[in-house]
Design a protein that fits this description.
Length: 105
């Protein structure tokens, strides 16, 4: 009888673990509209925290350190977008020659 008790306890722990995994997956699936932006905001805050802390140690106020860090991040993002647009436009300008070479093949 003792062997069966151990078996049922082990089975119950596996079922509890499986139930937890299934419920976690359901919560992540239905909560993705909220959890994805929150996780992205957390990633940005983790990246910007050392910069803000360094600026605060240099004597800048907390609000201005945050504003400066976010401004730097926005400028960096806009530069990446500008680079992508530039590359797309250069590809678009080269498209007729690429199409001609493809037609020759």
């Amino acid at each position: 009888m003792l062997v069966l008790d151990k078996f049922f306890k082990r089975e119950a722990s596996y079922l509890t673990w499986l139930q937890g995994v299934v419920y976690s997956c359901i919560i992540l699936y239905f909560g993705r509209n909220i959890l994805v932006p929150i996780s992205f905001a957390m990633l940005v805050s983790f990246v910007l925290y050392p910069i803000c802390a360094w600026l605060e140690r240099k004597g800048m106020g907390r609000m201005w350190a945050i504003v400066l860090s976010l401004t730097f991040l926005m400028v960096l993002g806009l530069l990446v977008v500008a680079l992508l647009v530039y590359q797309f436009l250069s590809f678009f300008n080269e498209w007729p020659s690429i199409q001609e070479k493809l037609n020759q093949l």
